[in-house]
Design a protein that fits this description.
There is one protein chain. The chain has 202 residues and is mainly α. It has one domain: Vanadium-containing Chloroperoxidase, domain 1, CATH 1.20.144. Helix 6 packs antiparallel against helix 7. The longest helix has 29 residues. The chain starts with 9 loop residues before the first helix and ends with a helix. 42% of the residues are buried. The C terminus is likely disordered.
């Protein structure tokens, strides 16, 4: 077992949660947290909350950019560290497997990164009005452990990548806007207010 996973509570989480009636909801939840699903959910939510196509496009740009950035970072790290998934290390007899068996490229979780990036980007734009997205982020990450696809460490790392990318995109776009560059972004706030509002909502 890789040293990174020596103390991982993967088996404890699975033992505490594994139940036939949870298999389908967790499978649906984990599928909903794929990158493309997060983009669709984000755009749909923005269309509901904004008035007019132009405002929707301006608000969607940071969200989609955050998802893209998190996806790129995740894929880069996966291929650099190339760590095995729980099924490879523990074997089929010890892993509660719900979806297709996966063996490699475990760290970090791309699903957890995507949903965390969405949560951060939407919170920066809408504040507490989208507080429920953080519940989705938590449950989406948990579902990756439940279905046997990831270690808890992978999920925590994925959350960190998503949060960092969402915040970095917001700060980058704001910096470019302050220099007079015409880049679509959310309504203007100072960087400190952006960070504070995201932290309070989390």
């Amino acid at each position: 077992m890789p040293a990174l996973y020596a103390l991982d509570p993967f088996l404890l989480v699975q033992a505490a949660l594994a139940s036939p009636w949870l298999d389908l909801p967790m499978a649906l939840l984990t599928t909903a947290c794929e990158g493309w699903s997060m983009a669709v959910i984000g755009i749909a939510l923005i269309l509901v909350m904004e008035r007019g196509l132009e405002r929707s496009i301006r608000s969607a740009f940071p969200v989609l950019l955050s998802l893209l950035a998190s996806g790129l970072v995740v894929q880069l790290v996966k291929r650099l560290v190339h760590l095995p998934r729980p099924l490879t290390v523990l074997g089929a007899a010890r892993v509660h497997l719900v979806l297709e068996p996966l063996g490699q490229l475990s760290f970090p979780s791309g699903h957890a990164a995507a949903v965390a990036a969405l949560a951060m980007a939407l919170t920066i734009r809408y504040g507490r009005r989208v507080g429920w997205v953080w519940v989705l982020a938590f449950l989406g990450g948990l579902s990756r452990v439940y279905v046997g696809a990831h270690w808890v460490t992978d999920v925590a790392a994925g959350w960190s990548v998503g949060l960092a990318c969402g915040l970095a995109v917001a700060l980058l776009l704001r910096a470019r806007a302050s220099q007079g560059t015409n880049v679509p972004l959310a309504p203007r706030r100072t960087a400190s207010r952006t960070v504070r509002s995201a932290t309070e909502a989390a």
